[in-house]
Specification:
Radius of gyration of chain B: 20 Å
Shape of chain A: globular
Strand order of the largest sheet of chain A: 1-2-3
Structural class of chain B: alpha/beta
Largest sheet of chain A: 3 strands, antiparallel
Distance between the termini of chain A: 23 Å
Helix content of chain B: 25-40%
Order of helices and strands of chain A: HHHEHHEEHHHHH
Radius of gyration of chain A: 18 Å
Number of strands of chain B: 12
Oligomer: heterodimer
Number of strands of chain A: 3
Distance between the termini of chain B: 63 Å
Helix content of chain A: 40-55%
Number of helices of chain B: 11
Number of helices of chain A: 10
Largest interface: A-B, 34 and 29 residues
C-alpha cells in the first residue's frame, strides 16, 4: 500500500529524481498470497468457507498475506497513473487486468465492496463506504461492466452524508468527483461536500492525521486536482 | 577439524535446533503468568439500561482494586455496525464501566479500539452509539488502529513473530480492561476477552483485517498478543450474547450476565461454561490455561453468583466438538 500511494503522490508531484521505474516494477511483481499455486489449490479444494475465485488475485496490505480490496485498488490506481506518463513494467497490462478482475469478483452481492470478500460462510457481506469508493476509483477506466459500477455508486449515494464518518465521507467525495459525469452522481456531490466542510469547521470531529489528509485530498479534488482520478 | 566437517557439523546442529524448536510445546518457553488464584464475578442483568451504572460499580467494588491515580484503558469489542444485530459491546455497559472506574479512584479512563475490518473507526463509533455515550460522560476515545506504536518483543512464540507493534496507549495504561461481547466465532469457536485483544493490534501496521496475524494462525496470534499485552481485568458483556455464525452474523442469545474477572483466562473459561461449551476443548483457552491464567474451577474464586448454564450455545458444525456434555457446564 505504501509503495502504491507513494507512486501516486510522487509521479504527480515529482516525476523525476527517484527510482519510479523500480517502484513500478516492484509493485507489478508483488501479489497476494493467492498468486502462489499452492494457496490457489488450497482455496479451491479445502479452504472454501470464503467464496471467491482464487485465480483472480490482487495485492495484500502486507507482503505474504492475501489480496484485499483497498490495497488492490491503490495498486491499480498507481499502475494506471504510471502508465499514463509512459512508465510501465513487464507484465503490467496483464497485472492490471487480473487486479481489476479480482475486484469485480469480490464485489458484494448487492453492490459495493466490503474489506475483501463478498460472502463468508454463505452470508453476503455489506459494503463499506471507503472500500467501495476506492475500488470505484481504481475501476474508473478499467471496466465496461456498468451494472457493477452503477450498483456500487447506488450504495455510496444511498448513505446519508450526515451519518457518514469523516473518512468515509471524504473518500466518497473523491470517488463521486471522478464519476461526476455519471447520471447517478449529478447533483449529489454538493450536499456531501457541504457536510465535509461543516465537519472541517469543528476540528474536534477529526481526530487523526489519516482522516485529515483524506479530507484535504477531497477538498483538492473539488477545488484543484483529484489525485486519485485516472484520466483516459 | 577441517572447514568442511565444521560446516557440516554446524548445519546439523542448526537443523537439530530448528527441529527441537518446532517440537517443543510453545508454552514451555514462556514465563508462567498465572496468578495463584483468580477471582470471577458473574452478575445478572436483564437488559441494557442506566441501572448498569450501579450494578457495575457494586460488582467492581468487590475486587478492591487499587485504582488511585491510575490510567484505565477500556477495550470494548467494536467490530462493525449491523442494524438490529448485537455485534458490539453495548455502549451503556462501556459507559457504566468508565463511570465505575472513575468513582473508584482512577485518575483517567480512556476507551480504545482498533476495528478489524472497518477502517473508518469513527463511523463505527458513531453508528454503534458509543460516541454519544462517551461524549455524554466526557470519556476520551483512542483509535488504536492509528495510535503511535512501539515494537515490543513477543513474550511467547506461538507465531513466528518475534516482535509485536503495539499502540502506545495500551502500553502506557496502568490497567487494561478487556470488554468483550460474549459470542461464538466461526474461526476460533468463541470470541471472549482474549480474542478481543486482537483489536489492540494496529491496522496501520498489520493492515485490515490484520491479515498478518490470520496467516500466522488466529488462535496462535491470540496467545502471543495476550502473553505480551495481558489484559489486567475483564468486564464481559453477556447480557445479549451471540450464538451460531458469530462474530457478525450469528443470532442474539439472551444470556443476561455480565462477567467480571481479574484474570482473562478465568474470565473466558467462565464465559465458555456459561455458554454451555467445554473451554478445555477450545485451543487458545486450553493453551492459555497452561501459562497465562487459571482455567480449572479449583483455582477460580466465584465471588458473586454461582455458575449455571442453559442449553449450550449453537455453534457452526466445525466446532461441534466444543459443546459440553449436558451436566458438565
Amino acid at each position: 500500500v505504501a509503495t502504491a500511494l507513494a507512486i501516486v503522490a510522487l509521479l504527480q508531484q515529482e516525476p523525476s529524481g527517484w527510482d519510479a521505474e523500480g517502484a513500478v516494477k516492484w509493485l507489478c511483481s508483488a501479489r497476494g498470497i493467492e498468486g502462489h499455486w499452492f494457496w490457489r489449490w488450497k482455496f479451491k479444494t479445502s479452504d472454501t468457507q470464503v467464496s471467491f475465485d482464487p485465480d483472480k488475485f490482487g495485492w495484500g496490505w502486507v507482503p505474504g498475506t492475501a489480496s484485499w480490496v483497498i490495497p488492490t485498488s491503490f495498486a491499480l490506481i498507481a499502475l494506471q497513473v504510471a502508465r499514463q506518463i509512459g512508465l510501465s513494467a513487464p507484465g503490467a497490462k496483464d497485472r492490471i487486468r487480473l487486479g481489476a478482475d479480482m475486484l469485480l469478483d469480490r464485489a458484494c452481492p448487492h453492490g459495493g465492496w466490503n474489506a475483501g470478500n463478498s460472502r463468508v460462510f454463505g452470508v453476503p457481506l455489506s459494503p463499506h463506504a471507503d472500500a467501495t469508493a476506492i475500488a470505484l476509483l481504481a475501476l474508473r477506466r478499467l471496466t465496461h461492466q456498468s451494472e457493477q459500477i452503477d450498483r456500487a455508486l447506488d450504495r455510496l449515494l444511498e448513505r446519508n452524508p450526515a451519518g457518514a464518518g469523516p473518512l468515509s465521507l471524504a473518500w466518497t467525495i473523491i470517488a463521486l468527483h471522478a464519476y461526476r459525469d455519471h447520471r447517478a452522481v449529478t447533483g449529489e456531490m454538493e450536499s456531501r461536500f457541504q457536510e465535509l466542510e461543516r465537519i472541517l469547521q469543528s476540528p474536534s470531529r477529526i481526530s487523526d492525521n489519516t482522516t485529515l489528509a483524506v479530507a484535504a485530498l477531497a477538498c483538492d479534488a473539488i477545488y484543484t486536482k483529484n489525485f486519485f482520478e485516472v484520466k483516459q | 577439524m577441517n572447514r568442511r566437517r565444521f560446516a557440516a557439523g554446524a548445519a546439523t546442529l542448526a537443523s537439530g535446533a530448528a527441529l527441537v524448536a518446532t517440537l517443543v510445546p510453545a508454552h514451555w518457553s514462556v514465563r508462567d503468568q498465572r496468578p495463584k488464584r483468580s477471582r470471577v464475578s458473574v452478575v445478572s442483568a436483564d437488559m441494557y439500561s442506566s441501572k448498569l451504572d450501579g450494578l457495575v460499580f457494586d460488582a467492581l467494588s468487590l475486587f478492591s482494586l487499587d485504582l488511585k491515580g491510575k490510567t484505565v484503558l477500556l477495550k470494548p469489542n467494536l467490530v462493525e455496525y449491523i442494524p438490529q444485530v448485537e455485534v458490539n459491546t453495548n455502549p451503556q455497559l462501556v459507559g457504566a464501566a468508565a463511570e465505575a472506574f472513575l468513582r473508584l479512584g482512577a485518575r483517567k479512563v480512556l476507551v480504545g479500539e482498533g476495528p478489524g475490518h472497518q477502517r473508518d473507526t469513527y463511523l463505527v463509533l458513531a453508528e454503534s452509539g458509543l460516541d454519544e455515550q462517551l461524549r455524554l460522560r466526557r470519556i476520551e476515545f483512542v483509535d488504536l488502529n492509528r495510535d503511535d506504536v512501539v515494537s515490543v518483543k513477543a513474550r511467547s512464540s506461538y507465531t513466528s513473530l518475534d516482535t509485536l507493534c503495539l499502540p502506545r496507549t495500551v502500553l502506557r495504561a496502568d490497567l487494561v480492561v478487556s470488554m468483550p461481547k460474549v459470542k461464538t466465532h466461526h474461526w476460533t469457536g468463541v470470541t471472549l476477552s482474549m480474542k478481543n485483544m486482537f483489536g489492540v493490534i494496529p491496522g496501520s501496521v498489520y493492515g485490515w483485517p490484520k491479515n498478518v496475524l490470520h496467516w500466522q494462525g488466529i488462535e496462535r496470534s491470540i496467545l502471543d498478543i495476550c502473553s505480551t499485552a495481558r489484559p489486567h481485568f475483564v468486564i464481559a458483556d453477556g447480557i445479549i450474547a451471540m450464538e451460531g455464525n458469530g462474530p457478525l452474523h450469528g443470532s442474539a442469545r439472551g444470556l443476561h450476565k455480565i462477567v467480571l474477572a481479574d484474570d482473562p483466562v478465568a474470565a473466558d473459561f467462565t464465559c465458555a461454561r456459561l455458554m454451555g461449551l467445554a473451554p478445555e476443548r477450545i485451543y487458545h483457552l486450553e493453551q492459555a490455561a497452561r501459562f497465562l491464567g487459571n482455567g480449572c474451577r479449583e483455582s477460580i474464586d466465584l465471588i458473586a453468583e454461582s455458575l449455571t448454564a442453559d442449553a449450550p450455545f449453537r455453534v457452526l458444525p466445525n466446532f461441534r466438538h466444543i459443546v459440553a456434555a449436558r451436566g458438565n457446564h
